[in-house]
Design brief:
Structural class: alpha+beta
Number of helices: 12
CATH class of the largest domain: Alpha Beta
Order of helices and strands: HHHEEHEHEEHHHEEEHHHH
CATH architecture of the largest domain: 2-Layer Sandwich
Strand content: 15-25%
Number of strands: 8
Radius of gyration: 19 Å
Shape: elongated
Low-confidence stretches: 176-184
């Protein structure tokens, strides 16, 4: 789906950049995207930057973006981009626009659509992730501020909405909670800061359980018959997903 530079989604980028000034000033946000996704396939996108957003449509990333599934499948949740399984879109943004360390929010609406808000920073500044946690309430409240200030803009864009097919699959971090849908051996762990659930793979779940039992990485490698390097990598992924700076901090967060 290619759109011209005169499309309202693009010409309104400067106005959106001004509206999100509180986010830029408080969190050093570089890129922002708002999506209003209707059940019938219509989409309204708003962004503060022309080039990265245009590339998202031009490259067809909407076909597998994490906010592009059927709106009815989403609940109120948040997900760090780094915890999502398919990193192609995020790697593209980093390589072409130096954008990374993002977070996306989904907001369930009962009136035939759901809304999404995504933001990210400069790839050279991973510390922005800490800012998300330290200002989490501020970010969620900003949604109301944004909708109020952009109300007329969104209304004006209704006739220009793009109709696109919904992706057939909803990513685990956004899926409606349903433990029966999880593969055998996986674990659903509550993310304390984001108030959502993170899915750990079978191997990650095994490592996580053993960590909470007080086992070291070396112990775990022997028990699971894995190389120490593989175990360390699993633990690193778990820490990233659950926002823990060390194994000690991870255990302190989840030990019962």
């Amino acid at each position: 789906m290619k759109i011209g530079h005169d499309h309202p989604f693009l010409t309104l980028c400067p106005a959106i950049n001004e509206i999100i000034k509180p986010l830029r000033d408080t969190l050093n946000i570089v890129h922002f995207i708002y999506l209003k996704s209707y059940d019938d396939g219509r989409r309204i996108y708003l962004s503060n930057q022309v080039t990265p957003f245009k590339a998202y449509l031009d490259e067809g990333h909407y076909a597998y973006g994490y906010c592009e599934s059927n709106p009815q499948d989403y609940v109120d949740q948040a997900a760090l981009w780094s915890t999502l399984p398919n990193q192609h879109i995020f790697e593209f943004r980093r390589a072409h626009f130096n954008l990374s360390h993002g977070i996306s929010f989904s907001f369930k609406n009962k009136e035939g659509y759901s809304e999404f808000m995504s933001l990210c920073g400069d790839a050279n500044h991973p510390e922005i992730v800490n800012a998300y946690f330290n200002h989490f309430d501020f970010i969620k409240k900003f949604r109301s501020v944004f909708l109020k200030k952009a109300e007329n803009i969104i209304e004006q864009l209704e006739p220009h909405a793009l109709t696109l097919p919904h992706k057939n699959e909803t990513p685990p971090l956004f899926r409606q909670a349903n433990t029966s849908s999880l593969k055998k051996g996986t674990m659903k762990v509550e993310h304390h800061e984001l108030n959502c659930h993170v899915i750990l793979s079978k191997q990650q779940s095994q490592c996580f359980r053993l960590l909470l039992e007080g086992k070291t990485a070396k112990n775990i490698s022997v028990i699971l018959k894995l190389s120490p390097r593989t175990v360390e990598e699993y633990i690193k992924i778990i820490r990233l997903k659950l926002n823990a700076r060390s194994s000690k901090e991870l255990i302190a967060k989840y030990i019962r």
